[in-house]
Amino acid sequence: MGNLDKKWDELKDQIYYWDGSWRDLYILNTNKEDWIKWVKYVNQHYIVNWYNGKTGIEENQINYDVIKEYFDREHDLCSTAKIFIDKIQINCHFFSESEIENDIDPREINSLKDHEHVLKYMTDLSTILNKEVILTPESEPEVILMNVNEQY
Hints:
The protein is α+β, with helices and mostly antiparallel strands and 152 residues long. The protein is built from four helices and eight strands, in the order αβαββαβββαββ. The chain has a single domain (20-149), classed as TATA-Binding Protein (2-Layer Sandwich).
């Protein structure tokens, strides 16, 4: 077995194992400015499928104004975004202004290349937002499987 195969096997066993749950990607202590940067980044760099809860229509760009209205409690029509990184679907449900949470199905991470896509996404977000980005088991933000911290 080559070194890359061994590295991938370790990543799969330690991070992308399938136990019936997804992985959560968190950026904690966020604010409106962070959300604006995140929306701009994903809209510019990835294929996006966003359900606008206000209109009931699927769109190919996230409209931050609608998300802001939700955070400000101007309506309770939640939205969901699907961000596609190559073949990997990352979901965002806009639960809270104070944290950006994305869901990743570990069964979609099947190679070192897939892992590198996730790592690039995390690194870009850490750099853009100047915050730590963590990957955890589902609903377990205190159990960090992987983190990226590009704060300056």
